[in-house]
Amino acid sequence: MAEQVGRYQTQEVLGSGGQAVVWRAVNQDDDSEIALKVMHTGASNEPKMVNELRNEAETLKTFDHPNIVRVLEFNTDLDADKAFIAMELVPNVLSKEELPLS
To answer: What is the pTM of this model?
Structure first.
């Protein structure tokens, strides 16, 4: 289900795991498409988990390489009770559901 997280409107799920979901999202400030990694609500309530996500964002920000996505921001949406990382959206990347099995 699409939702507003910070200044981003989620569009479609690109992938998910035990602690977070990655969405295709739109920045409401400039209509740009981004990838938004949003922690599940339960994980967002755990300071240790939020710190791990913050550390992930800070570490990724130190890299400047064409094969590593650029982190735009780490933030928390107190209204939605969500911690998130906004990242550049890499065009034409296949999800694991679209990859060939052989």
So the answer is: 0.83
